[in-house]
TrEMBL record:
Example of a GO MF term: transferase activity
UniProt name for this protein: Glycosyl transferase
InterPro entries, A to Z: Nucleotide-diphossugar_trans
Keywords, alphabetical: Transferase
Organism this protein belongs to: Alteromonas sediminis
């Protein structure tokens, strides 16, 4: 059970009483009359073949308050799309699948590419962006939650606690970030958040100076959580990265667009586990290695927009400071694990920190080599300005796919 401590600039909504799920869902059903709710599920087809997503759907069929579910499907051919229609067909809520590799949505994407307005690379960011566009186009929901499809410990209480802050008409939150203890199978997980993001923020505070933005980022219990919720109007202006910097980029956009009292974080699960990425010690184009570079670049870019100047000497100082702070954190996490009867491999933790330290320099060099890089996908306001009928065309394409291939 959590304590009630409020840390940093963002409101923390704790799980203080283990309130029964039935009570939460009963309130959400009432809230849905004023604020209809939607869920976005960004999915790879391969996730339909694993046990996690099937279990998630088992839980979602029992959720009484959702108005619609929007599934973004990546890396699927025609037969796989047909399978997905059948796979999600038992959902009682109104639901649609965006077949992102299908010819209809590809044609729209090609037109946006010609205008320089489409996502530049495949991945979760692109998937989420098109799902957000569909939510805007469908105009069925006011409060929207998003969570990953590889959560092996899923329970529908996670969704209830995630969407509650933006669904309750008496609350004024525009955005809620989920957090949870990354503990499973007797181990402490969440290496990138524990060993990169938090130590890097502290290192930046020491080297380039503290700022309101760094304090904001340091307020989040688990900044890399893939679970968040938001009010529909957030979708118009948000710019999200198409790379692994998605979660950090979303938080940065919330900081840019909203005051802190319109944002919160909520404790949404007692335990949480999902598919783990490889550390990729020898390949900085994949796994946690690429993720760490993208995340670090995202933070450097944000700080540069606030007037901070970076050079190689700055990055060397950040790296050295980070390395010392991260190593100290390893001892902290080890002691925490021991006291709770958990295991933590100090050797593998230090290997990860060494790789992250090296990747801070790679991210810095990449930033210096290409300071005008813009990995952010344009906001939907900008896209609609350039192609006024784009949202209607997305809905038309999705409906045509559904009609042609269903059954």
């Amino acid at each position: 059970m959590a304590d009630f401590h409020q840390n940093g600039l963002v409101t923390t909504l704790h799980n203080l009483a283990n309130r029964p799920l039935e009570a939460l869902e009963a309130e959400l059903v009432q809230f849905s009359e004023k604020r209809p709710m939607a869920l976005i599920l960004p999915s790879l087809f391969s996730e339909l073949e694993g046990p996690a997503l099937a279990k998630i759907v088992d839980h979602l069929v029992k959720v009484p308050y959702l108005n619609e579910i929007v599934i973004g499907l990546d890396r699927a051919n025609e037969s796989q799309y047909r399978h997905a229609l059948d796979f999600f067909g038992r959902l009682p809520q109104h639901h649609r699948i965006l077949w992102n590799d299908g010819p209809r949505l590809r044609a729209i994407d090609d037109e946006l590419q010609q205008l320089g307005l489409a996502p530049k690379e495949m991945g979760k960011g692109r998937n989420v962006w098109y799902c957000m566009g569909y939510i805007l186009a469908s105009n069925k929901s006011e409060s929207v939650a998003l969570h990953d499809c590889d959560i092996t410990t899923y329970d529908r209480e996670l969704l209830a606690r995630l969407i509650y802050p933006v669904a309750n008409p008496q609350f004024n939150y525009e955005f809620c970030k989920g957090f949870y203890a990354r503990v499973a199978n007797g181990k402490i997980n969440g290496r990138v958040s524990r060993l990169l993001v938090t130590p890097l923020i502290r290192a930046l505070q020491r080297t380039i100076g503290d700022s309101e933005y760094l304090q904001f980022m340091d307020s989040f219990r688990y900044p890399l959580a893939g679970e968040f919720s938001f009010r529909r109007d957030v979708l118009n202006d948000i710019r999200i990265p198409s790379d692994w910097g998605l979660e950090i980029g979303v938080l940065s956009e919330m900081h840019r667009n909203y005051s802190s009292n319109r944002l919160c974080q909520a404790d949404i699960a007692e335990t949480y586990d999902h598919k783990h990425q490889d550390l990729s010690l020898n390949n900085d184009q994949g796994g946690l290695s690429k993720m760490s570079i993208d995340i670090t670049k995202a933070m450097f870019r944000k700080l540069a927009t606030q007037g901070n100047t970076f050079n190689l000497e700055t990055f060397r100082s950040v790296k050295a400071t980070y390395f010392r702070i991260a190593l100290d954190f390893i001892e902290t996490y080890h002691n925490d694990a021991v006291m709770n009867g958990l295991t933590l491999d100090i050797h593998s933790e230090e290997k990860a920190v060494e790789m992250f330290a090296s990747n801070i320099m790679k991210a810095g060099q990449s930033f210096l080599d290409n300071p005008m890089e813009t990995p952010f996908i344009p906001s939907w306001n900008r896209v609609v300005s350039a192609m006024p009928d784009v949202l209607d065309r997305i809905v038309t394409a999705v409906e045509a796919d559904t009609k042609e291939y269903l059954g």
